[in-house]
Design a protein that fits this description.
The complex is a heterodimer of chains A (433) and B (272). With 433 residues, chain A is an alpha/beta fold. In chain A, 27% of the residues lie in helices and 31% in strands. Chain A has 3 domains: 4-9 and 73-266, Rossmann fold; 19-63, no CATH class; 276-407, abc- transporter (atp binding component) like domain (Coagulation Factor XIII, Chain A, domain 1, Distorted Sandwich), CATH 2.70.50. Chain A contains 10 helices and 19 strands. Chain A has a 6-stranded mixed β-sheet, with helices on both faces. In chain A, strands 10, 13, 15, 16, 18 and 19 form a 6-stranded mixed β-sheet that branches. In chain A, helix 4 crosses helix 5. Chain A is globular. Chain B has 272 residues and is mainly α. In chain B, helix 7 (151-181) runs antiparallel to helix 8 (184-199). Classes of the chains: A alpha/beta (433), B mainly alpha (272). At the A-B interface, helix 1, helix 3, strand 4 and helix 4 of A face strand 1, helix 2, helix 5 and helix 12 of B.
């Protein structure tokens, strides 16, 4: 047998959009399937393959079905640590779910050697009413540990979680930090041959995160195979020997983490959909119109995402139908969160921008030397108007002109990733006397 | 090292299924422990509930069906007649309703981690055994106190328990798998439990039913179980034919339930 720990071939998973089918429909479909099963058995060899194939083709054409994963071929060697990256909805979690046998594949197969432990969330099965100790046993068994194994490692787990004093307290009285620490401590003491981990490092305080990263490194040095999904590029870089980029359910790139991450950050071009130029949901007289928006990094390369702490340039293209007075002009860009809270505003009037004359078409660049927002999605609003801001003097105003994806980054230059959340970072330091 | 193959559209072999089940036997105990612990957290009288419930139910039956409706009991005191029925019937009802809701109740686990899904309903039946055991000991106590105790009560219990658990798990598995997809089941279950209780000789003796009903009573294995517990106490002869058929039927229910559940097991995470 080869040294492949996991062999994935032609894997695909199809889901259906929206709700479960109407009761009638499924009942009927189920009955049909059942009848088919009887038929199958009766005829021995002669399976109604053709009927099945017709059914499949029909599903492929049906727009209410989509492939969350398709044509995944991947071989993971024993002891390899593979990071899986990709945008939301790229199929990362689905892949982990198929690997950990939570959901069956629609096509293809996976072969693996040894036990798989999957960690798709922190503290799976924790019960609020049970004490810390009881939850260690509960969670450990759910993750596939033997009770004797848990009992043996109990002290180690408790020490790792740093919650010694609260072992007899129901976890509903725990702070969220304690809860997460306890949950991760159990997971960190699993000893499967293969570990599948989904974005669980994003929780907990920085010190604990570091401890977890250390533990993960330990794990991989012991020859264990690890597959993990993360939006935390720094963690992928430090932990993984290989990265796999998923896009729309397919493998887009794989190889050295640095290269794949670069491709991911660069390749993810602005959102598809209609262009800014063709948008009609805008205000203004159109004397100046925004026609495009893109993000670039400090090297001028176009990017789809930015890490907290990095430089970002927003390049906005425009077209002018009528002359605009650049000396009496306000041009602004603002960032908003999902709940329509204004987070920051760059406005040329208060910044004292001295514009050069505006041509028939051109670009305006807003330079943000350091992205001070934490990981999340932000909506960009553009505004251009005459200095006296009466309704008729607005040239153009577009809400949601683009979505800015901010990734957790290495803002503090400490190698620790800052937390996610729609709030801001700010340079600073902490000291004591 | 074990090699596992996950392949599209293929059910795991029965042997693999049994092996998985064996590997996860401790999880069954863990779930059982969790359910038992959680049930009596933040209650004042705690485990005493297990003792009080059958007593109060029985007293209510004795009062209404015994003293008021004057139900015939084939020679047993009302207290024993109803207690014997209550202990087994309520265990059965608790098991199959618990099973039916268990998969949905543990959806958060099923969508996050793999284990043989049968473990969830199976643990419900295991947890119910604790309540049953307490009730059964009380039954023995009351029978001794009233002078109706007979060694047959102890001798017959394993067989009756096997019928009861097979039937409840079998029915519960079908309901649990259906409930994952059609939540109608959840609403129907309490109602179903009530109807089934009326169809089972709990408040009346089997002997009061017309002959043709008694002949098909084996389709509800609990009819035989409840009646047999009473027969133990009257030291009367058992209806072995009914018991044998009921055992057969309950095993049939169990196998059918497992088969049905297993067919849907893989897809549970997607439809829950």
């Amino acid at each position: 047998m080869s040294d492949a720990a996991i062999q994935i071939s032609g894997l695909g998973k199809r889901y259906r959009y929206g709700e479960v089918r109407s009761a009638n429909d499924t009942l009927r479909a189920d009955l049909a399937e059942w009848a088919k099963g009887l038929f199958k058995r009766g005829n021995g060899q002669q399976r109604p393959q053709t009927l099945h194939a017709i059914h499949e083709r029909h599903l492929d054409a049906d727009p209410s079905y989509f492939w969350a994963l398709r044509d995944i071929n991947l071989e993971i060697k024993q002891g390899e640590v593979v990071g899986i990256i990709g945008r939301n909805g790229a199929g990362k979690s689905t892949l982990l779910k198929v690997l950990s046998r939570i959901t069956p594949p629609t096509e293809g197969s996976v072969t693996y050697h040894g036990r798989i432990a999957s960690l798709l969330e922190v503290g799976t099965g924790f019960h609020r009413e049970l004490t810390g100790r009881e939850n260690i046993f509960l969670n450990g068994s759910i993750l596939g540990m033997k009770r004797s194994e848990i009992a043996r490692k109990l002290d180690e787990i408790i020490a790792f979680a740093e919650v010694e004093k609260f072992m007899e307290t129901p976890v509903k009285f725990y702070s969220s930090g304690m809860y997460v620490r306890l949950a991760f401590a159990v997971a960190a003491h699993l000893e499967p041959e293969i570990m599948v981990v989904d974005e669980v490092l994003a929780v907990g305080d920085a010190a604990f995160q570091k401890k977890c990263l250390g533990k993960m490194q330990d794990v991989s040095q012991h020859g264990r195979t690890v597959l993990f999904v993360s939006h935390n590029m720094a963690a992928i870089k430090t932990l993984c020997s290989r990265a796999v980029l998923l896009n729309a359910g397919r493998i887009e790139a794989q190889g050295k983490p640095e290269e794949v991450i670069a491709r991911y950050l660069a390749g993810a071009a602005p959102e598809q959909g209609i262009s800014l130029e063709q948008r009609t949901d805008r205000l203004g007289n159109g004397a100046l119109r925004f026609t495009g928006i893109r993000f670039t990094n400090k090297f001028g390369q176009e990017v789809g995402e930015v890490e907290s702490g990095d430089e970002l340039n927003v390049v906005v293209s425009y077209k002018c139908k009528a002359p605009v007075d650049e000396k009496r002009m306000i041009l602004s860009l603002s960032l908003w969160d999902d709940l329509k809270n204004l987070l920051t505003l760059f406005s040329s009037d208060e910044m004292g921008t001295a514009f050069k004359p505006f041509h028939e078409q051109g670009t305006v660049t807003v330079r943000i030397p350091q992205m001070l927002l934490r990981a999340g999605q932000y909506s960009v609003k553009l505004w251009a108007s005459h200095l006296d801001t009466q309704a008729e003097s607005v040239y153009d105003c577009v809400e949601d002109a683009a979505t800015l994806h901010v990734m957790a980054g290495n803002f503090w230059k400490t190698g620790r990733v800052n937390r996610e959340g729609n709030y801001s970072l700010m340079p600073g330091s902490i000291s004591n006397e | 090292m074990n090699t596992t193959i996950i392949s599209a559209g293929q059910h795991e072999r029965v042997r693999q299924f049994l092996k998985d089940l064996w590997d996860y036997r401790e999880l069954c105990l863990t779930f059982m422990e969790r359910d038992l612990k959680v049930r009596y957290k933040q209650t004042v009288i705690g485990v005493l509930w297990v003792v009080l419930q059958p007593i109060f139910t029985t007293l209510a039956y004795v009062l209404i069906f015994g003293k008021i409706a004057r139900m015939p009991t084939d020679g047993l005191p009302y207290m024993l007649f109803y207690f014997a029925a209550n202990v087994s019937w309520s265990a059965f009802a608790r098991e199959f309703t618990g099973c039916a809701l268990s998969v949905e109740g543990n959806a958060y686990l099923i969508s996050k981690v793999y284990f043989p899904r049968v473990v969830v309903p199976a643990s419900v039946v295991c947890a119910s055994m604790v309540d049953f055991l307490i009730g059964w000991l009380m039954l023995n106590g009351i029978a001794m106190w009233m002078g109706h105790w007979h060694w047959q009560l102890v001798a017959m219990t394993p067989l009756l328990l096997a019928i009861q658990c097979s039937a409840s798990l079998g029915i519960g598995l079908v309901l649990a798998a259906l409930n994952a997809q059609y939540r109608d089941v959840k609403n129907a279950v309490p109602f179903l439990a009530q109807i089934m209780m009326l169809a089972t000789p709990v408040i009346y003796p089997l002997s009061q039913l017309p002959v043709w009903v008694r002949e098909i009573a084996f389709i509800n294995p609990m009819a035989a179980v409840v009646t047999a517990y009473r027969d133990c106490l009257t030291a009367g002869p058992f209806d072995w034919q009914l018991l044998g058929l009921s055992l057969f039927v309950s095993v049939f229910y169990l196998v059918g339930g497992l088969w049905f559940f297993r067919r849907r097991e893989a897809k549970l995470a997607d439809i829950l």
